[in-house]
Every structure is written in structure tokens, then in C-alpha cells.
Amino acid sequence: MATPLPKPIKGQADWRDYQAVQLENGVTVLAIHDKESKMTAMSCCVNVGASADPRSLSGLAHFVEHMCFLGSSKYPGENEYKRYLASHGGRSNASTSMHLTNYKFEVLAEHAEKAIDIFSNFFIDPLFTSSGTIREVQAVDSENSKNLVADGRRRLQILKDLVDPDHYYSKFSTGNSKTLDTSDEAKSEYTRSALLAFHAKHYMPENFIVVVAGPQPLETLQDWIASRFSRIEAKSFPSTGHMSDVERLVAEAAKDAPPYSFKEPTPEHNSLFEGSIKSSMPLLLTTKPLRSMRKLVLMFPMKSDRKNPDKSPSSFLSHLLGHEGKGSIFAALQTQGMISSLSSGARTSGPDFKLFSIDLELTEKGEEHWEQVTETVFAYCRMLNKELEKESKDESKEMRRIWEEQSKLDKIFFDQTSPGGAYSYAPNLSERVNAYGTKECLSAGSMLNEDAGTFPLDSVIETAKFLVPDNCLVERCSAKAWEEAEKNADSGSFGFERKTEQWYDVEYIVAPIAAETTKAWSEDVPNSKSANDSTELRLPSENRYIPRSLDLCEELPEEARVPRIEKPIDPPNLLINNEAGRLYHRLDDRYALPKSSVIVLIRNAATVHKKANDGKWDYDGKTGLMSTMLSVMFSQAMAQETYDADLAGLDYNLSLGPSGVKLHCYGFSDRVPDLATTVLENFLAGDFLKDAYFVSTKDRLVRGLDTFFSSRRADSLGIYYRDALLASKDGSINDSLLQTKDIDMDALREHHKSIVENKEVLLDCLFTGNVSAMTAKSLFSDVDATICRATGSSLEARPSLSFVPATDLERRVMPQEDIELHFQSENPQEENGAVVFTYQSPFPSFRGKGLSHDSSLKSTSAMRLLCHMLREPLFDELRTKQQLGYIVSSYYDRGFSARQPDDDKVLDPSMVPVDFITISVLSRKLPPIDIATRIDEFLEQFRNSLHEMPESEIRDHADALSKKLLKPIQKLLTESNTHFGKIHRFAPECFSTTDEGKSEPLPWKTDEDLAECIQSLSRAELVETWDRIIGPASRARIVSCVYGNTFPLTDKSNGGGLMSSFGLGSRSAKITNDFSKLVNYRQRMGVFNNQATVVSKRSYSSIASPRNFLGSSSSKLTSTIPIVGMGVVGVAGMVGWTMMRNQKATSSK
């Protein structure tokens, strides 16, 4: 009989129902009925993690997590679970932290029961085979190798190296093939024995928290879980005198792990640092990053306050120390040009310790004066202590005011936030149940019962006492800091000690901090070197952005005043369509929240173009770089002014891109219009164009470009080179670096002026959410008036656009054309190589009925379905069975193409989407060319499997994909971005007149059209599409190979051998290891336009779409030109530090 547990306290906007029980065997179950969900998601959280690892078997908990997925007695197939999920629209993953192991999946609701059965059997009776042990150790090792080039991971391992070696936090949690040795049969069996012992010791039913969420009734969900998880039995673990050596090892290591569940007593404080480290504080730690950064991090070990989330003193202090408003540390240092960002909070924590950190991103000036920057931080800490002393004497109530303000906002957020997707919700909730119990798993940390009278003054005073120099580890992380420390260490300077971390083999240097510096940090003594006058430092003022009203719009009908996510989304209404632009509006009738979103796009060619003498706008890379600098400078300048808005749930983003100036504001409805107009007015006024912001921004951009290649993982570089060929108008990275260095403040002011004074602008605005049509029109009028004032022209005097700005570009790869790109990674730490296959469809992607030919609808639908079918078997073969590498992914991708014809200065406003299938592998097991061969071999096998696949399996995939496309949107922000994406790309084409009130033909329902078509696809159509896209006889493919240190690129003279590796009957191969030749080659490639180019009797034929504004660009097959030689680096539309296309690759365990 299950024992009922308290139901969670939930917010007003949470439509879900909850029920919690504890099964007889001790498993805790939380069932969630979500009437709006089409998916069922589940998480199983096990109360054990890497803190329980034996030190001689580092990564054992992580390894158990991997092995649990590899079959059970009832379902012995190693890929049965993933295959079932993949064919029914599902996905899965798992993670291991220091204290918990979390397994999760989601699947279409109608297929949930069998998925739960397969999942539960991993914990009831896992196989843990010897063969799986050997292979999965290689997966763990590959995962670890991926992490070796991540600065965050490297710095974390250095921190672990400094920690008391007897502290569990010092353990190496990931593991590798050395710590989990399977190099021979005996060692492999020993590792497997440890796996079995660890599982028996820790995977006990009382350690399990199971959360399941779906549209099924609560009773059904609970029955599904209870009938299965009640079968988990505590494994018999021998008593001390009867243990084997490996069991004794596991049992002893278990004592390291502190109690972590809410049911267990709070452990005593366990200091991270002991001995020489603790006694030497303040201690200077210097680390060398791979990516360009200038970090200064102050770390303070203190007691844990994890069990008091509503009265957390460290969270309150984090709010004050991380504040960015007037009087804050950030404001004082940013004003002087010392820092560009600041954050504070837990660097890491456990149930028995916390390492609090203040993280500052320094400017060049700030790095020069890092000691004075630190002095400012400690001056603020001393100010806090003085204010707390006043509070204790009732001489001030400012701290109580801030505490009450925080609690008020937290309560608003708790009640006015709708549920998100269950796939992330379930694992997060299972961990919170473990930490806080079922009753407070949703509300813990939301301060529901807090006000000014509950301010925990004593605990805040106690915690603030930790924020002193004698309890501080100071980390400097930059190339310059490393050079200074290395010079001191090599010259034998007192106390400078060079060390090497064991697992990542990364160097670091520790040194004492001079006594006079420590004194300056500790006392309120005037110092000529001080970064600022400490009198500038003060507590935050009242937040003027707290919402005044949470009422829903009066225009909203009564039935829409409760959440109804199942209701289909009506498209936005076109309220205004005139010379100024277009205003779309949608009054929310689904979420019942007092929130709104406004997106304003000022179409303005001057952001990335220059106007030639003939009046034609020409793309200019340097202009684009200056626009990036303007947007970053503006963000920095507005930080102090808008930080309160951010705290009050308001967010904004202003960016300058190919289409012009885009402003997006989101948050509580009554504040959004004011924020939008304030931000826009400040940008157009140009007061942010100050030297301090310019120096900081330029420095950051230069450093990002300078270390671009030496800091990135091989697979991201593979995508970079691919996009450099397909989607870039820019030259090399070095070209962009030189252009950036050449930009000065005068040039930026002139560029800003050219944007603001360009009269050829057009507005596209979408206002959606809890907002009336009248309010939307008023804001549109305000925005247009603001622009008119800035440009100095009235609406009537504004000229028509000579250009609809859009520099989106995809070049066409011709059928039967294989293009190979081979580059050596310049990251000195990169052991992995990478292979990225990209297949381009000859048909334009489907845009919507009326805008696209039926062939585009069929092609896009078939490509998406093939990708859905391909993902799991590719992963199973190359990752699980062949163990080629940790990252093995395949996904559908989409680009966009538009161009300005050479013979006309007016652009036909047509945006052409382009379909791609991408396959990516990151590996150090084989050279990239061998990995490519393995991919090709798999693809050939998969093509055969399409003929043999049962019809029911094809229908399962089609059904799953179509239902995922029709899954209701659950967040207003997602809805707004989805709708504006269509407005942004297709409105210029769909509106050739300014007939106000005209019913717009924008393609709002493309997902519905795709879902319907996917359901109708036959096996023959899938095979035909496969042969057209993937088949060697007609494919248009790019193979991008990047070589790591394990298998470096050595063939510098000819590529004949490489061509045969990929050829398989294709008619062309281009091999380039020289970026300048890549640029030359792309100049011969045509732009992907609104026609299809297919192979027909050894010639090309074009199929025009109904709306073809760009004309034909079919061309003859380019002859094969092998291009060989070591290359220089390049840029591919990379502006600043942002990659060109946001990939949606996934790589789950």
C-alpha cells in the first residue's frame, strides 16, 4: 500500500494537478496531470553521485549512468529503448553530478506506457554485460576528451586540484579509460565488478525519486509507476566481514558522500580548503584560458544554506553584490572603464559547504589595475557590514526594504509563470523533491511567506563576515595574467609555484598576495591607487519597474481568462499597413497571464551596407562589424539603467543585423511599452557613444577574433568552414581582425549617424499578449514618431525603400557535386577530429501554400521524416556499437537565401529557405577520412533498410513527427518569436501594396501543411527523396573535415587518395586546405534561388515555384579541381563572437 505524501504548493498560473505517494519499498513518486501536454515525460533521480566514487575508480557513478541504458532482462536489446523513443517522437538523456544521478525521457503520450516499462526495467534488472562494459568505457573516455578543450571544465579541474585532497569535491567525476580500466580481460572484469557493487550499494529503492508528467489521469500515471517501480528491491550488500575487495572499496568510498536528501540530517560544515591553502588566504590563482578572456574571480568558502532556500543569506548577499544599478560595484567600476560584466553567486556548493564567488570580466584597463578593482569589491563588502550593523541597532531599515521587495517579486514570478515543457520540468522537479520534499518542491525559494518582518538579519550578518580578504581565493584568468605569473615563477619570485592538474594536464600558478595589498583591501584607508571613491557605493534604490497592475486586458472575453493551451493559435491581425510600415497585433487568449511581447524591426539597409554612387546598397563587412560594436556598446551603456527592469521580469534586446535594427521587449504588460520607447529613444540619441564602452567592446571583439581558431572544438570548426563556403560574404578571420582594429570612435559615430539619418526605413512590428489593439497602435505611432524625429523627416516626406535589406545567403551546391574541406585544428589542446556531412536539397524549402510549389512541400516533408528516422540508428551504429566518438548527431537544418540582382538596385523581396541534412561526428578513434568512410557505409546500409523497414515503423515515425509539429506552443515568448520569424522573412514578398486593412497572405500554417503531408508520404517517395538528396548519383554534398592532434592532417601535396574515400560514384570532388582557395571557389557558386535544380538524363532541369522573384540561376556542372595546401584561417559571416547559424544538433547518451 502506497503512503500519500503532501501535494506541492503551486502557483496561480499552474494548470497542472499533482499527486505524491511513497511506495512500500521506499520509492517516492510524484505524478503530474498536464491536460495541455501531448507528451509524457519521466525522470528518475537517484540519490547518489560522484562524491561516492572510489578514488581509484574515478567516474564510477557516471559509468553506472551510462550502463543503465544498455538493456535489461526483459528488454535485452541495447538500442531497444532509444529505437522505441525515436519512432514515437521521444528523446532521452541522463546526467551525473557530485550528489545525484538523473535519468529522463519523453515520448508521445499514447506510447508512454511501454516507454515507462522499458525505462523502469533499467532499474529493476539491468544487464550490465561484459561487452557493454568495454564499449561504454570508451564512451565515457570520448566524453572526457570532448571536455578537455572547454575553459570552464579546465578551470573547474584546477579548483578541484586546490581543494583539500580528502574532500569529496576533489574527486574526478567524469572518469576516463585509465580510471575505468578495461585494457585486458582481468581489468575489464574488475571494472564490471565495481559497477555491480556500486549499483547494489546505492541503487536502493529509498534513494529513488520518480516524477512522471503527462495528459493521462493521475491514477493512471501512478498505477503505471507503482506497478513497476515497486518491484525494485534493495540489493543484498554483504556485511563488512564478507565483502570482496571491490565491495569494500565501494563501501568505504560511500562514507565520503554527505547526506543530500531533505529526509537526512544536515551534515556538519566541511571546509573545502585546508592546510597551506587555507592559511595562505588571500591566495592568488592564475590560470591560462584557451579562449580570450580577462576574468577576475573572488571566491569565498562559507557554510551551506541549502536547506533554507526562502531565507538564504547567501542569495540575499548575491542580489546586492551582483546588482548593476546606481551605487553598485558594477556601476562604480563600469563607469571608470574597469569591467564589462559582473555576476555573483555560488561557484559550487554541496549540503555541507558553499563556495561563493564574485565574477568580473575586466577591460584592458581593469586588468592593469586588478588590485584596485578588488579593493572596490571589498569596500562594498565593508559597506554591507556597516549597513547590517545599523540594521541590528534599528538605525536603518534599508535591508528590510530590499528583502521585502525581493519577496514581492518572487511571489509575482511564482504566481505568474506558466509551466514549460515536461522534458526539462520533470528532472528539475525530481531533484527538488529530493532537496525539499513534495510539498515545497515547487515553491522553495519563492519567499511565499517572507516580508520585511522575516528578514534573517543574524544569518545575513554571519554570512557577510565570510566576505573578507583573509577568506578569499583570487583567480586571474587571462593571457596577460599568465605571462606575468609565468615570468615570476620562472624567475624564482617568492611564493610563486607552478603546478599541473592531474586529469586535464593543465598548468596553473599559485602565489601569495602582498601584505600591503591585503591591507588596502581590508581597511577604509584612502589610497591614491584606489579604483574609486567608496562613497559612491550604496545599497540599491527602490525598483521603479515592479508591475503596477497584474490585471488582464478588458477586451479579453471571460472564457479566455483561464489558461487554455489546447486552443489553436489564431494568426496576428494586421492593424496598420501604410507607408510607415506594418503593425501586427494578437490579443492573447491562451495563457491568461499579464505579460506581453513587442518586436520592432526597423528595416534599414545602412546596418550592414554602404550606398554606392549609383544609389545601390552594397554589402560591406566592416560596416557589419561596426553595427555589432554599436549593439554591444549600447547594451553596456544601458546596463545600469535597465537592471531594475530585468529584476522585475522585463527583458529587452536591441540588435543590429542584416535586416536593420531589431528591438524586442518582453515582460509584464503595463511596463513593456514604456521600456520599448525608452530603449529606442536612447539608441537613436546616441549618448552611449562613449570612449569607455568603445574601448571595452573593441577589445573584446579583437580578442575574440584573435583566439577564434585556437579555442574552438573541432566539430564547431567543421561547421564554420562549411558555412564559410555556403553562407558567408566575408573574407578570412584575419581580414575581420584587421578591419576591427582599424575602427575608431569617429567611424562609429559616423556609422551610427548613417543608420539614424537613413530615411529609407520601414517598420515591421508585432505586439502580442495581454495588450489591447489601441495600446498596440499607440506604441506603433510612438515608435514611428521617434524615428521621424531622429531622421528629421515626416512620414509624408519619407522616400520609398530602394532596398529591402536582407543579406541572408545560401550558395547552391549542384547535383552530383561533392565538395571536401580539410583543415587542421589550431587548438593546441584538441585531440579530437571532426567530420561534418551536409546534404543540400535541390528544391527550395517549403514556405507555405501559395508561396511554394507542391514539390517543395513533398521534399521538405520527406527530408524531415528521413532525419527523424535516421537519428537513432546512426547513433546506435556509430556511437554505441562502433564507439567512434561521444558526439554523433544527425539533424534537419534550414537556411535562408536572398540576393540583390546585379542589374537592378531594387531587390525583389523574396526570401528562399533551403533544406539540409547534417551529420556530425567528433572522434579521436580514427582519422577524419576513415570516419567519413564509416558514415558513408552506414548511409548505404540505411538506404537498404528503407526497403526492408516494416510499414508500421514508417507510419510510427510519420505519426510521431507530425504530432510533434502540431504540439501546442506553451509560452508566449515562443509564440511571438515564431510569428515574427514569418513576418521578418516573408512580409516584404507578401505585401507589394500598402492597402491598409488588407488580409495578409503570410504563411502562418506551414506546420499544419507539413504535418498533413508527412502523414501521406509513401515508402517509394521516401526512397526517391533519399536517392535525390543522399544518393551518390545526384547528391549535393559538402564534407568538412577538421583534424586534431591524435590524427593530424599530413597530406599537404595531393588529395587523390582522399577523393576515393568519399567518391562512391560522385562526379566531382573539391579538396581545399587553403582558405583563400575556399573563397575563390565559392565565387563560382550560384546563389540558391527559388527554383529547383535536379539531375535529369545527365543534365539539369529547373522547376520554378509559383512566386519566383529571383529568376533562374541554373548552371553547368563545374569540373573537378583538387585544391591542396596548408590553409590560413578565415571568417564565415562571423560578426563579433557569434557563429552564423544556430545549430540544433543533439547528442544524447
TrEMBL record:
SUPFAM superfamilies named among the record's database cross-references: LuxS/MPP-like metallohydrolase (SSF63411)
This protein's record includes keyword Cell inner membrane: no
Record GO biological process: proteolysis
UniProt-listed Gene3D superfamilies: Metalloenzyme, LuxS/M16 peptidase-like
Keyword Transmembrane: yes
Superkingdom: Eukaryota
Keywords carried by this UniProt record: Hydrolase, Membrane, Metal-binding, Metalloprotease, Protease, Transmembrane, Transmembrane helix, Zinc
Cofactor(s) needed: Zn(2+)
InterPro entries linked to this entry: Metalloenz_LuxS/M16, Pept_M16_N, Pept_M16_Zn_BS, Peptidase_M16, Peptidase_M16_C, Peptidase_M16_M
TM annotation in the entry: 1121-1140
Domain Peptidase M16 C-terminal per the UniProt entry, residue ranges: 191-397, 743-959
Molecular function terms from GO: metal ion binding; metalloendopeptidase activity
Family per similarity comment: Belongs to the peptidase M16 family.
Protein name as it appears in the record: Insulysin
Originating species: Cylindrotheca closterium
Source organism phylogeny: Eukaryota, Sar, Stramenopiles, Ochrophyta, Bacillariophyta
